[in-house]
């Protein structure tokens, strides 16, 4: 091997930078390898005509593993917090349920929401539905009200990038009852890349290295352990020895790098059975006037594809040219798992958005992209998470494909990084 590192970290997405920063702060010397020209992966940003366009996540949770990571590695958690953070659009009006909770929200939709509240109360006490019951089926037990169904569907779409008939009700309820339910979050004034860049700075501050525009093309192993990797960098291939590997590339990509023979047929088969990446659309809209009457995120209840939107410049005006406004919109196709007609689904999403927000008539869609396949909204369908450990005893996965059951968002990536690094240090 021409080079050596304590721990090789593959991919500078949120899970990768969290792991690398924790390792560096603990005195290890990680090498973080990223094939793109910037850190962040599906939680990154780039500039376009004076606007900051995010490649995926925009809202960063605090009060959990993400904030804990910043505190423990000594990085600045420079977020700005909208108030109110989460609201709902019901019947064309914005509803803030912060004080009244589910009862207040459901009362605005239907006078027959008592049975939904009863089912939610049961889940809060730990009485979850059976695993095979979908969220759509669980809601149908309580009500046939279409607005209630769309609301829960859009909550599932906003958090997990799925439709209500694709996610187990138990996974959805576990998130809302046990995992914080995305109540506390902020936006970064540099775009989401600012979060990942702060962690990347820790890696280099504490003696680690970051290779951008570089790609791990193979992992080498002997006697059940990874011994090194071949990395393509600057037009040449470099052999790097390592004591351990953390992959943020996703379990499928990790198999391709390590080789099926090294990992074993049973493991490979289980990953391919569980691997169910989800899809969504991210739409950035520029306007002269704000499209939303709230500074944070809004969840819709009258749409079939558009699930939520964020008023980015209300909290972070730096994300747009002076005097301009930037709104980011998320939409989930039907289906979100498996093949779909991307052009048709995007057009239907834009039609919904124009019907829901009158200001769209004077606004401009400056970026609209689909996240699917090898660049998914999430690498695993909630309820079908894959294992972090591999048959090679010094190779782990991190990221949203191997999150805890019922977790979601970038917070889940930080959780996987924390737990894997604890294993490595132990």
TrEMBL record:
The record's section on Pfam families has: Amino_oxidase
The cross-references to InterPro entries, in alphabetical order and at most eight, read: Amino_oxidase, FAD/NAD-bd_sf
At the top level, the lineage of the source is Bacteria
Instruction: State the Gene Ontology terms under molecular function.
Output: oxidoreductase activity
| Residues covered by the Amine oxidase domain | 14-425
- Name this protein carries in UniProt: Phytoene dehydrogenase-like protein
Q: What organism does this protein naturally occur in?
A: Conexibacter arvalis
Lineage, broadest ranks: Bacteria, Bacillati, Actinomycetota, Thermoleophilia, Solirubrobacterales
């Amino acid at each position: 091997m021409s080079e050596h590192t304590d721990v090789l970290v593959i991919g500078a997405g949120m899970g990768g930078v969290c792991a690398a920063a924790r390792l560096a702060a603990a005195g290890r010397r990680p090498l973080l390898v990223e094939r793109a020209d910037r850190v962040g992966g599906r939680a990154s940003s780039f500039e376009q005509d004076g606007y900051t366009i995010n490649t995926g996540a925009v809202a960063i949770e605090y009060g959990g593993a993400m904030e804990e990571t910043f505190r423990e590695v000594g990085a600045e958690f420079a977020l700005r917090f909208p108030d109110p953070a989460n609201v709902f659009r019901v019947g064309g009006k914005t509803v803030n349920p912060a004080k009244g909770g589910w009862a207040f929200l459901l009362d605005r939709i239907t006078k027959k929401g008592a049975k939904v509240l009863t089912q939610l109360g049961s889940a809060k006490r730990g009485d979850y539905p059976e695993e095979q019951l979908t969220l759509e089926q669980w809601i149908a037990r309580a009500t046939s009200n279409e607005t209630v169904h769309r609301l829960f569907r859009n909550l599932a779409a906003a958090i997990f990038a799925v439709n209500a008939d694709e996610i187990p009700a138990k996974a959805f309820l576990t998130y809302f009852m046990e995992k914080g339910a995305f109540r506390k979050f902020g936006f970064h004034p540099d775009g989401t890349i600012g979060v990942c860049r702060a962690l990347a700075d820790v890696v280099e501050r504490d003696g680690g290295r970051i290779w951008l525009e570089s790609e791990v093309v193979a992992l080498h192993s002997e006697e059940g352990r990874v011994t090194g990797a071949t990395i393509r960098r600057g037009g040449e291939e470099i052999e790097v020895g390592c004591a351990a590997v953390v992959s943020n590339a996703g379990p499928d990509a990790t198999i391709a790098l390590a080789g099926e023979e090294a990992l074993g047929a049973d493991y490979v088969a289980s990953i391919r059975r569980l691997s169910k990446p989800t899809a969504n659309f991210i739409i950035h809209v520029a306007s002269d006037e704000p499209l939303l009457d709230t500074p944070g995120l809004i969840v819709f209840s009258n749409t079939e594809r558009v699930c939520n939107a964020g008023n980015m410049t209300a909290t972070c005006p730096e994300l747009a040219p002076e005097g301009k406004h930037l709104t980011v919109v998320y939409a989930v196709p039907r289906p979100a798992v498996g093949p779909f007609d991307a052009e048709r689904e995007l057009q239907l999403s834009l039609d919904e958005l124009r019907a829901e927000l009158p200001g769209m008539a004077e606004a401009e869609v400056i970026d609209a992209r689909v996240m699917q396949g090898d660049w998914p909204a999430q690498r695993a369908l909630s309820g079908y998470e894959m294992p972090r450990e591999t048959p090679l005893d010094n190779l782990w996965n991190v990221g949203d494909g191997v999150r805890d059951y019922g977790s979601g968002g970038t917070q889940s990536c930080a959780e996987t990084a924390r737990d894997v690094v604890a294993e490595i240090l132990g």
